[in-house]
Amino acid sequence: MKTAAAFADFRSYPLVCALDTVKPLADQVLITWADGRVSPFHHQWLRDNCPCPQCVYSVTREQVLEIVDVPEDLTPDTTWLDDEGCLCVGWQDGHQSRFDPGWLRAHAYDEPSRAERLASKPQRRLWQHDLPLPVFDYQAVMEDADALLQWLLAVRDIGLTQVRGVPTEPGSLQRLAQRISFIRESNFGVLFNVQSKADADSNAYTAFNLPLHSDLPTRELQPGLQFLHCLVNDAQGGESIFVDGFAVAEALRQEAPDDFEALCRIPVEFRNKDRHSDYRCLAPIIALDALGHVAEIRMANFLRGPFDTSAEQMPGLYRAYRRLIALTREPRLRLVRRLEPGQLWCFDNRRTLHARNAFDPATGARHFQGCYVDRDELLSRIRVLQR
Amino acid sequence: MKTAAAFADFRSYPLVCALDTVKPLADQVLITWADGRVSPFHHQWLRDNCPCPQCVYSVTREQVLEIVDVPEDLTPDTTWLDDEGCLCVGWQDGHQSRFDPGWLRAHAYDEPSRAERLASKPQRRLWQHDLPLPVFDYQAVMEDADALLQWLLAVRDIGLTQVRGVPTEPGSLQRLAQRISFIRESNFGVLFNVQSKADADSNAYTAFNLPLHSDLPTRELQPGLQFLHCLVNDAQGGESIFVDGFAVAEALRQEAPDDFEALCRIPVEFRNKDRHSDYRCLAPIIALDALGHVAEIRMANFLRGPFDTSAEQMPGLYRAYRRLIALTREPRLRLVRRLEPGQLWCFDNRRTLHARNAFDPATGARHFQGCYVDRDELLSRIRVLQR
């Protein structure tokens, strides 16, 4: 019997540590590794994860077995370690399973193994006004897989990047975005044109200043990445302003825990509406992940509906909201830059809030193009580049 | 002074009840309505929602005022009801606000008003095997706004519909989906072809049976609506099976509350991976909304990664998962139909689980096309049709 043929994955799992002994218990197998770690594997889990070609279709690497079709009390007749260091299980019903030790270690669910996986997750880096701006070169990211990966890792972990040397023909942005994946369309189009328009269907398409916001907080899933590409910028004003929303939220949590808690708990409605569409989303301004880390900021004052909470909570909600906005205005947190033609911003729209100073259309033309790509596509691209 | 010029909305707000009296308090105004209801409106809330053209840009109907630019303790000098029954507020700083009573009643946040709004939200209708299938006619929904609305309401509230009389040319589905909105693209394309392929990158593209599942549980936001359009169906087998996932989850909550709770709490990883992409999403199988109602089912056995929870929780997770799958297999819950050419399914992918019996490609051709549209686009379209 050679190395397990079908893993339900396209990743490889190097041998980190050899299996040492295997001990059968009533409802699980207890593995001891060469480094002394002990990992329990329940019978159900092992049978469920059998990688053989009967249980996993080798072309798609997707599971065919459904665990419910196996008795709940199925137990092994025999368990052993083979010559290649794999865990082998001979089941009561005659089926055999064989597990590669690299794969098994990567999926072990003893506490040290789970803690190790958690610790190896990417760490975000919070920033303030003095962030050394991560700048990348268009040609490099278009042609070189490693330059692309470095850019995408910065987008993921810092949430704000600039790309320079981008062609200034309208539509050029599309080619760059497609280096990651397809573009997420919205009612504003596949690419949207940020220009002052008489018949604007968003304040973004005026010459007004725009306060710090995320785009499309009016959707259940706010777009993950936002691109803003400068084609022409001859108008006075219109500087871009960025704030790390996670840094702002963490500052609020420190300074005013009650306000932080209110913004995590009380849902607020956001609305994009025009003659042809009417988008509404009700969600808290700050979302936390399962570990209590800030996972998302949802905020656009100009898209906010009237607060709708109990009369008892209303004053507290205003206090919290005012404090959050005030924090985003602190100069120590704000990075301000003017974007020049051929440059573009690519940032995490669910983390990095963006704003624009008012500009004067009488002083010259200003034309940006923008688009969105979701976090799922970013992370998939990173995983494939890292294989 | 005529009726308030700019509302920050495109909806109309009919006069449900007149304003009777207005009483100023320290931090709020207390309104009594003609029907006796009493509504508090805090000063901050009133100032924040001032609909005048200085505070709201009349072209986009988006707010320009930021409440943080107004003192936190701003109070009215005077409040009165004008000849047209509007609430008028003269602020200390000289600004004046005027609120239409129809709009004010629709946004009042006293408890009876909030309970009324909650009760008027659309109610889902749970179903079992004997659902009278909601069937709609292609020509009618393409040409008639009311037929379109009726179809979309059934999609929203029942979560399973069939459309008949659809042209069988490849690509026809696109026109129908675009009656709602743009299509949500995925790594499988804008339209995907469901056919048995030698180089399948998903078990969906084989002739295997597919157990009950949602599509793309591997994305943070599972697609809201799924379309499956039958072009050719000459092969034996391949019947479509549907189960109301909300009905299944509610049955589980009744029969086995601990299992229900485990599936709401313990995250499970789902994976779509091939040579070009690697999507992973970690989330519980059952998601609840803020009121504790089941809001979403995330499930596809063939896309599931190994369970990764503590050894203490592992047996309970398997017990709960097995019980859920067993429930979806109960004939009383399953609706089974064979789709014929020119028919299509449109269903709520985050609620209605779908399955396919195995088919025999040797007995004839079978070609379906599918696509996705998100819930946001569905609900926006319904709101515009209902204006």
From TrEMBL, chains A, B:
Residues 27-104 form the Gamma-butyrobetaine hydroxylase-like N-terminal domain. InterPro entries: AlphaKG_dependent_hydroxylases (IPR050411), GBBH-like (IPR012775), GBBH-like_N (IPR010376), GBBH-like_N_sf (IPR038492), TauD-like_sf (IPR042098), TauD/TfdA-like (IPR003819). GO terms for molecular function: 2-oxoglutarate-dependent dioxygenase activity; iron ion binding. Residues 135-372 form the TauD/TfdA-like domain. Keywords: Dioxygenase, Iron, Metal-binding, Oxidoreductase. Pfam families: GBBH-like_N, TauD. GO terms for biological process: carnitine biosynthetic process. Its cofactor is Fe(2+); L-ascorbate. NCBIfam families: carnitine_bodg. Belongs to the gamma-BBH/TMLD family. This is Gamma-butyrobetaine dioxygenase.
